[in-house]
Design goal:
Distance between the termini: 45 Å
CATH topology of the largest domain: Serine Threonine Protein Phosphatase 5, Tetratricopeptide repeat
Radius of gyration: 19 Å
Helix content: over 70%
Number of domains: 3
Number of strands: 0
CATH class of the largest domain: Mainly Alpha
Length: about 280
Amino acid sequence: MLGTLAGIQGEHTRAVARFEDGLSLARKTGDVRSVAIFLNNLGHATLALGDPERATVLFEESLARYREVGDDQGATISLINLGLAALTRGDHGRTTELLLESLTLLREVESKLLMVEWLEVMAGAAGARGQVQRAARLWGAAQTFRQDMGAPLPSDELAMLEPYLSSARSLVEEKVWEVARTEGRTMTHERAVEYALSEEKPEPPSALPISKRALVGAQLDVFTRRETEVAALVGRGLTNRQIASELVISERTVDHHVANILKKLGLHSRSEVAARMAE
């Protein structure tokens, strides 16, 4: 609970420390379900700190432990969180796979709150792919369901999803986004899920990028905090070894971030990244 409170207050480093202490105690007692809970909470706090790679490892072990004790609801939570971590890593295909896998369990546990969280990550994934109206409708639906339940979206979860929603929103005029979001707010739970699973269709002309400048800004908005730092240093011409030294991280981690940056921007070289950052 101290870790959860720290996370609510935005003190994610302190939250990580509390959850690590709790995980250590849970492992000593052999309480598998508590181990799963601490792993999941630790993964969430780690993800909030901008380390999706470590968070993924933690969520995967959490999922395994929940399955070990037959906790379907816990397994659903871990799968949704794994989807969010994949989204943060820029692996949109994996995000979709994990969310589809979680939906089977989600329908069995019948948790309205988890269904909302599922829709929110689906909205973020749509935003990351530039599916503006899909992102707006799913986000609108999730907002209405949270309002009806009296369960506001925690600020740390909003912070993780906001870059993908903002990137999509910046591609169109405000009224286009609001019309689609309002349409989403009228959806039932069943209709929202059906729509989230529906086949992707080309966006109408009104939802296409309004300018190259807006598109560039939207692409940069999908970076994690660490990727933004790495991209800025690449733009200054630093090598991966120099970036690792500057940020006090491993060179291998820098390699991974640079690969994600290239993938998210659809580029092939560091010089192109530097040009894009300048733009």
